[in-house]
Structure formats: structure tokens, C-alpha cells
């Protein structure tokens, strides 16, 4: 860990002279003495003098995790690497925002029963995942196969195909809390922002949100929240916006053709090469296939007129 505590609970960062300036450094969970580890490869960090791990929920540190904790530690509203105690049970959390929202960092998958146990213990929380190369390739494949599509052209809201699963999410499908994926390192910067997969709330499809790094940090460190409302509220807002878009498109869809002419036109459009090229064009712009087909049909109908 990069932070230890003194006898009064005050945070002690792991620095190169920490052992000399503050020998009274303790683990916040087991309250045993910690020692600063200073090397040339990894950042300075704290470790138990005995080398033991006092909490089985604690995962090994990584440069990715330490880097994010350094970012969060700059805010006075964030408590990092501390312990939550409930019903006599004590467990580490990586970061806690505004004394309510907990972030649990993960690199490896957990057994299904552990997801439920930890989510029940921490309550209001989200999983923060250091994505690996395999998950990045599956994300790219999902976009290539149109498994993931934007919701009516919204570049921040996406949905998965109702008939398909999300391959990159397969290791975390037992979660009942939001999962944030950071692909930036494994994609060599080609994927900007962070992908948030929302838990299902009865609907067949799954909702995905794209956060910029700046918005993600601001929401957590300033507002102490991840989403603009609960998961149910966010999904309701997305559905409401989707219905408005549908109504707007339907109201402008080929208004100058009669029912018979619409059928003839649709039959002609199905085999038209121009129609297919227009659909591809709109899908490359981020529209779903249904929306792209409607826009292509409307464009061609206006051209005919």
C-alpha cells in the first residue's frame, strides 16, 4: 500500500525517507507495524514487517492502481487505502469518496460468490478494472460486429445487441454494481476515456456509458458520485431520451408519401446499392442500424421528390 497510519489514524505516505522520519507506521486493518519499501523499480510503498497479508480481500498493488490512487489522494474529499468496519468485520477499500461511495480496484476475476459478498459489505460502490489485452481485443470485436451501438447517435451512451452478450464483460457478469474499465494502457492510448457497464435492471439489453478521464475524476473527487443519480434513474433518463428521439424520427419519416407509395419505395430501397452505402455511412458516424436505415430511407425519399 502507498499509505499507512500512525497511532492517531493520520495518513503517512510512503516516501524514501519515511522509515527515518516516522517509524511508528501501522496497518489500518490489523494495526501491526509497517515498513517502507524503497526500490528502483516500483514506487515507494508500505508492507507488513512479517510480509503477511492481513486481509484476504486485498489484491496485489500495481503501477496502474498506484497511479490512480495518487490522482485521487490530491482531493480532500477522498480517503484512500483505509478500512471499513461493519458488524465486527474489517476489510480494506481502495478509495472512498465523500464518506459514502467506495471504489474497489481489480485486475483479476473473483469467484461469483465473492462478488455478492463484497458488494453486500461495501454497499454503495463500483468496481474499477484494469483491463487486459484480451478484454481490449473483445471490445474492438464488439464494435466491428455491431454488438455495441450508440443509442440514437449519442456518443456517450451505448447498448449491446439484445441477442448477444458482451465478450469483454464476461469475467464480471456476476456483478450487481457498475463496472468501470480502463483500456488506455493496453490500447496504447487508442481508447480514450473509461467504459462503464451498468448492471441489468430487468431490461434485456445492457447499457454502457463512456466517461472522459476529466469528467470521471471530477465526478468522484468534487461531487463524490459516479452517476447523475442511481442506476435506475440513469436508465430511466436514457429510455426517456430514446423515446423522444424515436418520436422525432417517426414524425419526419417520409411524410410526403402515401401508404402504398411507401411500400413500393421500401421494396425498391431494399435492393438499392445506394441505400446500403448510406446505411454504412451513418453507422460509421455512430448511429444504430435501425436509425441509420431510417435516415438513409429519408435521404433517398427526399432525393426522389
- Measured between the Cα atoms of the first and last residue, the distance is 68 Å
Radius of gyration (CA) equals: 25 Å
Class based on secondary structure composition and strand pairing: alpha+beta
The overall strand count is 13
Produce a short descriptive summary.
The chain has 305 residues and is of the alpha+beta class. The chain is 35% helix and 22% strand.
Describe it for me?
With 305 residues, this protein is an alpha+beta fold. It has helices spanning 18-21, 63-72, 112-122, 133-144, 213-221, 231-251, 259-270, 273-284, 289-304, and strands spanning 3-5, 11-13, 34-37, 45-48, 78-86, 89-97, 101-106, 125-130, 148-151, 154-160, 179-182, 194-197, 207-211. It has a 9-stranded mixed β-sheet, sandwiched between helices. It has a two-stranded antiparallel sheet with strand order 1-2. It has a two-stranded antiparallel sheet with strand order 3-4. A hairpin with a 2-residue loop joins strand 5 (78-86) and strand 6 (89-97). Helix 8 crosses helix 9. The radius of gyration is 25 Å and the shape is elongated. 26% of the residues are buried. The model is unreliable at 256-260 (pLDDT under 50).
Amino acid at each position: 500500500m502507498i499509505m499507512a497510519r500512525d497511532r492517531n489514524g493520520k495518513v503517512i505516505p510512503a516516501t524514501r525517507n519515511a522509515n527515518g522520519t516516522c517509524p511508528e507506521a501501522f496497518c489500518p486493518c490489523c494495526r501491526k507495524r509497517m515498513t517502507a519499501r524503497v526500490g528502483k523499480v516500483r514506487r515507494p510503498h508500505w508492507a507488513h514487517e512479517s510480509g503477511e497479508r492481513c486481509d484476504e480481500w486485498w489484491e496485489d498493488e500495481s503501477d496502474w492502481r498506484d497511479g490512480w490512487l495518487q490522482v485521487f489522494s490530491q482531493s480532500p474529499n477522498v480517503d484512500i487505502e483505509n478500512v471499513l468496519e461493519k458488524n465486527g468485520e474489517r476489510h480494506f477499500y481502495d478509495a472512498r469518496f465523500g464518506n459514502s461511495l467506495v471504489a474497489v480496484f481489480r485486475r483479476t476475476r473473483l469467484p461469483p460468490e465473492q462478488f455478492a459478498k463484497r458488494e453486500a459489505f461495501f454497499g454503495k460502490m463500483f468496481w474499477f478494472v484494469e483491463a487486459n489485452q484480451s478484454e481490449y481485443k473483445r471490445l474492438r470485436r464488439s464494435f466491428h460486429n455491431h454488438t455495441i451501438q450508440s443509442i440514437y447517435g449519442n456518443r456517450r451512451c451505448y447498448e449491446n445487441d439484445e441477442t448477444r452478450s458482451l465478450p469483454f464483460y464476461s469475467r464480471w457478469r456476476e456483478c450487481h454494481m457498475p463496472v468501470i474499465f480502463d483500456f488506455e494502457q493496453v490500447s496504447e492510448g487508442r481508447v480514450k476515456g473509461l467504459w462503464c457497464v451498468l448492471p441489468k435492471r430487468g431490461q434485456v439489453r445492457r447499457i454502457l456509458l463512456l466517461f472522459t478521464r476529466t469528467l470521471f475524476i471530477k465526478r468522484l473527487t468534487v461531487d463524490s458520485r459516479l452517476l447523475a443519480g442511481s442506476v435506475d434513474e440513469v436508465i430511466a433518463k436514457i429510455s426517456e431520451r430514446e423515446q423522444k428521439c424515436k418520436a422525432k424520427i417517426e414524425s419526419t419519416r417520409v411524410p410526403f408519401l402515401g401508404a402504398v407509395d411507401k411500400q413500393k419505395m421500401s421494396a425498391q430501397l431494399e435492393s438499392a446499392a445506394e441505400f446500403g452505402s448510406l446505411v454504412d455511412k451513418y453507422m460509421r458516424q455512430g448511429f444504430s442500424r435501425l436509425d441509420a436505415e431510417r435516415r438513409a430511407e429519408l435521404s433517398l425519399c427526399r432525393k426522389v421528390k
